[in-house]
């Protein structure tokens, strides 16, 4: 059972376009985290959202946590080729329990 | 920031041999380490959770006799793939909650180990 449904799984867009990645669950998470992973490397944390309704911005990236803490979204404005990579959402149930990962979104931004 | 150093980054071994992967927390004490496996173009799958000084907890379907996990100190956790077979070829990644708490501050990942069994 995939606790976190992430969509889309693949996305290929032109430089300058906007995009949104969604992460949905029927379960409540204490926090949702977004990671980016380059080929052959481990994931790197982009942001953690903890409070329902929270919005965090990281340059051209905007992260939102749903009011009920069951879903999250990542919006990228004016995508650049450097944004290409695998984006993973991951949920934490409580404390330092293992992350529950979505299937990931493989983004390709074409110049 | 917190760093988890993972070695080796790549290893090729023959079928039937064993391979040890090490993860060290460089500037913090990691009482818990999570071990993941990742297949090409897929997400991370949790294999097991190791806690310093106690036995690891394995996820359903993961053979504990095949994937030996040791967490003998607060800065070192190891995963040994015993009697490796080609189907064990994969990308293995370790992760620890940040020293300030994984819930709010995320988890730190090692750089991964690409295991190829020939």
What features would you highlight for this structure?
heterodimer; A: 111 residues; mainly beta; 6-stranded mixed beta sheet; B: 118 residues; 7-stranded mixed beta sheet; 4-stranded antiparallel beta sheet; 11 strands
What's the topology here?
The complex is a heterodimer of chains A (111) and B (118).
Chain A: E1 5-7, E2 10-14, E3 19-24, E4 31-37, E5 44-49, E6 55-58, E7 61-65, E8 71-76, E9 85-92, E10 100-101, E11 105-110
Chain B: E1 4-7, E2 10-13, E3 19-25, E4 32-38, E5 44-51, E6 57-58, E7 67-73, E8 76-81, E9 90-97, H1 102-105, E10 107-109, E11 113-117
Parallel strand pairs in B: 2-11
Antiparallel strand pairs in B: 1-3, 3-8, 4-5, 4-9, 5-6, 7-8, 9-10, 9-11
Strand content of chain A: over 45%
Q: How much helical structure, as a percent, in the residues of chain B?
A: under 10%
Number of helices of chain A: 0
Q: What does the oligomeric state look like here?
A: heterodimer
How would the global form of chain B be characterised? globular
Which H/E pattern describes the elements of chain B? EEEEEEEEEHEE
Count of helix runs of chain B? 1
Largest sheet of chain B: 7 strands, mixed
> Termini of chain B, distance in Å?
37 Å
Helical proportion of chain A, percent range: under 10%
Q: Please report the total strand number of chain B as a whole number.
A: 11
Residue fraction in strands of chain B: over 45%
Question: What general form of chain A does the structure show?
Answer: globular
Rg of chain A (CA only): 13 Å
Round the mean pLDDT of chain B to the nearest integer and report it: 94
Low-confidence stretches of chain A: none
**Classification by helices and strands of chain A:** mainly beta
Task: Report the average pLDDT across residues of chain A.
Answer: 94
- Going by helix content, strand content and strand pairing, the class of chain B is mainly beta
